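note to self — DONT lose this again. spent like an hour looking for the file last time. sequence + predicted structure for the chain T wanted, 188 res
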Amino acid sequence: MAQDLRNLFNEDSKNVDAKMSDGHEARFLKKLEEERPIKKSSRRLSVFNIAASVVVLLGLSFGAYQFVQSPTNSNQPIKVADNDIKTLGDISPDFKKVEDYYLASINLELSKVELTPQNKELFDGYVQRLKELNEEYDKLTIELNENGPNEETLDALIENLKFRLNLVMRLKDKLQEFNDDSFAEETI
């Protein structure tokens, strides 16, 4: 039952004498014409294509006009509203790390301070000075936004943060000395 396909094809090629019946090609072409869909040229579709092209062209023209008319003078500093003020951290990721480090350190050290009625006056003096430094920092931030980032303003902002951290560290030291003196007086 199993036959080699090569042998079958060799035998078929010997029977080349087979011819199609008369009119076969004509009947085939007739059936093909009947089955093939009739192609209508739709004027309605072409009208929509033209209208869509006009709308797209008008949209692109308007967009190009708006782009050309927009101010392109980027040399002038951009004025921002008060609620859009950029901080030191908005300049770059490195400045963000520096600002976050100092502010977190200041807040951490302040949270460790133990306030008592005896050291309240000393504490209030340091807090007042910290408030003044914070106001100065805010003024420097406004200057940063008005004049743009420059070396002097950035250095001043970082120095302000350093000074505030040093001030808090001195406050801790003074309070520790105060507590040590108070403890020594109580033991005498």
